[in-house]
Design a protein that fits this description.
Radius of gyration: 23 Å
Strand content: 15-25%
Strand order of the largest sheet: 2-3-4-7-6-5
Number of strands: 7
Number of domains: 2
Largest sheet: 6 strands, antiparallel, barrel
Distance between the termini: 21 Å
Helix content: 40-55%
Length: 243
């Protein structure tokens, strides 16, 4: 998918970027401990930076990519973490300190779990349109209308990808004003559904990714996203299903 922009960064994206930054600080602490110098010594900071410029470059590249929601972020993260692990265990081999060994194993475990969370987050339907504006989409089509901020302005749309909490809508016409919170109303097999949603991503001229949540005090007889998702799952509907 080309030109997909992330409007609302998820906590997973931000936390993974923060973890990567703290990983560099962890390596600096290890090196300072092994060399017997102060961690907060200004000269040691400059020396660490000069000795690991490529690692810093990888860190910056990863932070920029993950905060932009790029799929290849997981590969940069993997390369970055492997470099960190190599350096961390290199410091252990120099010092042969059991405390460093324990910290390194904890670092490996944390790195792995952050990878799992990041991979799951990047794979959400709101970040994965499954098509581009130049494609002829032939998947499952569900008639729907989107009311922007309850202002009465509506767009015809098609669900082209979805999961338990998010979806991606292909929208006819301009989507410049689609931001923040919106109301989504749609009809499926004669039944009306309604849900509030945050616009978390979008592609100009193509569509938007939404994170849906249940409304409080919904009108009687109108179902929400949870009921709709349960129904299409039980009937075997898939975003890749040919209409």
């Amino acid at each position: 998918m080309q030109n997909l922009k992330i409007y609302k960064k998820s906590p997973v994206m931000r936390n993974t970027a923060v973890f990567a930054v703290f990983s560099m600080f962890y390596l600096h602490v290890l090196e300072s401990f092994v060399k017997g110098v102060s961690t907060f010594n200004q000269d040691s900071y400059f020396l660490f930076f000069n000795s690991h410029r490529f690692l810093f470059f990888t860190l910056v590249l990863f932070c920029l990519s993950i905060l932009s929601g790029r799929k290849f972020s997981k590969y940069i993260y993997t390369a970055f973490i492997f470099q960190c692990i190599y350096f961390a265990f290199e410091q252990y081999m120099i010092a042969l300190d059991k405390f460093i060994l324990i910290l390194n194993f904890l670092f490996v475990i944390l790195s792995y779990y952050f990878y799992l969370f990041m991979n799951s987050d990047l794979g959400e339907a709101s970040n994965t349109p499954l098509a581009s504006k130049d494609d002829m989409y032939t998947g499952l089509t569900i008639d729907s209308e989107i009311c922007i901020n309850c202002s009465g302005e509506k767009y015809n749309a098609t669900f082209i990808n979805w999961d338990q909490y998010t979806c991606f809508l292909k929208i006819e016409g301009s989507i410049k004003n689609l931001r923040n919170e919106v109301q989504v109303d749609w009809v499926f097999e004669g039944i009306k559904y309604s849900s509030r949603a945050f616009v978390v991503s979008g592609s100009p001229g193509f569509g938007v990714g939404l994170r849906l949540f249940e409304q409080e005090n919904e009108s009687s007889g109108i179902f929400g996203w949870t009921e709709f998702y349960d129904i299409i799952q039980s009937r075997g509907y898939s975003p890749n299903l040919t209409a």
